[in-house]
Amino acid sequence: MALKGIGVLLGCAAALVVTTACTAEYRETRAEQAYPPVGDFLSVNGTRVHYVTKGEGTDLVLIHGASGNLRDFTFSLIDKLSERYRVTAFDRPGMGYTDRVDPEHGTTIIEQALLLADASNQLGLDRPMVLGHSYGGAVALAWAVERPDSLSALILLAAASNPWNSDLSTYYKVTSSDLGSALAVPAITAFTPSSVVHDVIDGIFAPQEPPEGYHDHIGAPLTLRRKSMRANAAQRANLLGEIEALHTRYDAIDVPTEIVHGDADTTVGLSIHSIPLSKQIDGANLTVLDGIGHMPHHAAEPEVIDAIDRAARRAGLR
Q: What is the DSSP string of 184-206?
């Protein structure tokens, strides 16, 4: 009887694993059908990179944050900037439709920066200004440190830039672990309801609300794909150590730098990140936005565009 009971349990467990995998695959297919690539592709050192380019003029590269994709910028910002810049937004490695550089260990901010710098060079972008939001700001800083001659200015929006003391969240501890990657990630992909995804997005925007239509535009189900969740979890779990190694090198950055950060941001703290950063980069200009949370390029779009224009003027590009 005991052996029979164990057999039943194993059979149920196997059925659950199969059901979860099939449901996850179905939801991933639906996500890619609903949110197909909106740009073009190029191969950079064997890695497929997805990008969107629009407009004419001074080159400007946009790098999105964690758990996102380039659709964050195509919602509104690219259209406004393309009136006077040639704007290129990339999906970061592992996110959207760009492949991971190192599927086994994740892709560091320096590896991401070098990939996007090489992609920009391959596209013929002439020493672009580089804008990074949140995690993408860390990638932009790595670009400025590692390839200082390949960019003309730096714009950082609520950028993760300096070490912090808080522990990694339980969610990322689980999803970045081997066991969590194998078991929890497929379950999250398969069974997370849309309402939970919307609540997470709303939390990122707080105290503001997402603009009308943002939920439908951003393509959050793309981030719930197993490969994207694993890539994002590894990147987030490794970020603190990578920033601890990078932040002592900021004094080498010598391009005009504009920093924009809301004082109501509870995701990337102003006092921990952008205030120290403004003192670590010679000549950096910090704009603090009163009452603005973690998404200034949506909640304070004119002020962000002003910062980009200032960077261009300071770099002699306008």
A: IHHHHHHH--HHHHHHHHHHHHT
Quick one: which of 282, 29, 47 has its CA closest to 144? 282
- Mean pLDDT across 157-165: 98
Query: Which helix (H) or strand (E) segment is 261 a member of?
Result: strand 257-262
Instruction: Note the pTM of the prediction, 2 decimals.
Output: 0.95
- Joined together, the tokens standing for residue 50 give 């997805």
User: Domain 33-314 belongs to what topology?
Assistant: Rossmann fold (3.40.50)
CA distance 284 to 10: 60
Query: Are 215 and 201 contacting, i.e. CB atoms less than 8 angstroms apart?
Result: yes
Task: Look at residue 3 and tell me whether its pLDDT is greater than 60.
Answer: no
What residue ranges do the domains of the chain occupy?
33-314
Q: Which of 177-183's residues contact partners 24+ apart within 8 Å by CB, and which partners?
A: 180/233, 181/230, 181/233
Q: Characterize the bridge pairing of strands 58-63 and 129-133.
A: parallel
List the one residue out of 285, 286, 289 whose CA is nearest residue 264: 289
Of the candidates 292, 132, 82, which has an alpha carbon nearest to the alpha carbon of residue 74? 82
296-311: string of b/e by CB count within 10 Å (b at 16+)? bbbbbbeebbebbbbb
CA distance 241 to 244: 5
* Torsions phi, psi for 266 (to 5 deg): -105, 0
pLDDT above 70 for 64 = yes
Average pLDDT over residues 67-92: 97
